[in-house]
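For the sake of transparency, this paper describes our internal protein records without simplification. An entry from our holdings is shown next, in its original layout:
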Amino acid sequence: MEYEEIVERVKRVVETPVRPIPEVVLQREKEEFYRKHARSLELFEEAKNYIPGGVEHNLATTKPFPLAMDRASGYRMWDVDGNEYVDYLLCGAPIILGHHYEPLDDEVVKVIQEKGPSTGLTSEFEILAARKICEHMPSVERVRFLQSGTEADMAALRIARAWTGRDKVVKVEGSYHGWYDIYVMNLHIPGTGGLNSKGIPAIAYEHLLEVKPNDFEGLERIFEEHGREIACMVLEPVGGESGVHPVHPEWNRRCRELCSEHGSLLIFDEVVTGFRLDMGGAQKYLGIDPDLTVLGKIIAHGYPSAGAVGGKAEIMDICGAGMGNKPYLGGTLAANPITCCACYHAIRLMEETDAVAKATAYADRLVAELNELFSTRPDLPFFLYNFGPIIHYVTTGFFAVDISGPQAMEIFRRKDVAEEYQMVASNRGLNSLAGTRMYTSMQHDDDALRRTVDAWEYILSLIPRS
């Protein structure tokens, strides 16, 4: 689906009154949810005694309460009550080969059994993993491993400032670059400002410059006014929230041009798109080379302590080891043998299995099938679009509400309704992200597709026709 059609259809969703499930029907679904997930509820109540809010995972669905999972394999996941799910969360995108993929797990277990988990010093896998990343990412000639996408985004900013001798950073509203102070502004939804900035001093934003998604005039103005002060521009190459706010076809190219013209570095945050949209990331898919690339959990296929920043050799080489006038990066467990083994073998196995192409083919089929289903309900403006194996489904459009306009408060009702749909989807065995997003793996098959379409057919049946 082309950019213009996506924008027009999202607009139609937002302009259409939200369509909740009738209260009497919703109450029945809630009762079923509580009945099917009794053990999860017990664990949640226990967790609240020790964990703030009872849940630690940003990706968890929390209404009516978060689910506790027991195990996963392929595209399937089972909770502690024994309920089975078709999983489209996939740990927030890194699982391309499928959960608990034995050829990968066997290599990691071998490292633990034969070598031990970590020494705090270099291992051969560190070099093998870095070389694999460089082989695929067009703009990446050097890699520095870290322990999360947030750390990698922090490091990229520090490197850019050290390289340019400048302080300011340009960010697109509604994008997500982890929870480092300067990035936690206008998070998730453009115009939300400091809604999520509790505990962050105002001075942290002294050097932050923000632009609305696809606001070419605003972008030009920022560089015209501050060009000599801008160290870098950081962006998600398919748009904020992995494409929830899709980019105009010329946006990335113009960002590249302006950064080059003003001596600023362009940073692509490829925590989701790297090794998912394409083996060479969004930069290869789009044909645009950034100066620095941020990677996260994607590089270790869900194994922990995973993050990296990479880029052109002349820039990255200022991060060389040792003391001196250089940007300081650290992390005792960064580049540990387990993570780097997982990185090397995950990329190798993705090459051998053509995993990205298979995940993309399934995503294309699922989008077509569900759009066909939604077309049977012309009274509902629901639709899906995808960037390869990154699927967005738009039912209430709460991410797209203009919170500076007269409908600002409607965002909360729209989000509630999306969460109600997601609760019903959970009852029917689907697991996705935030009521808006699905990631696919090479393991999803005809059965997964059928179960997904059946679940959505059921959800539609609960919404009265207008």
In short: The two ends are 27 Å apart (CA to CA). The longest helix spans residues 355-374. The first strand starts at residue 69 and ends at 73.
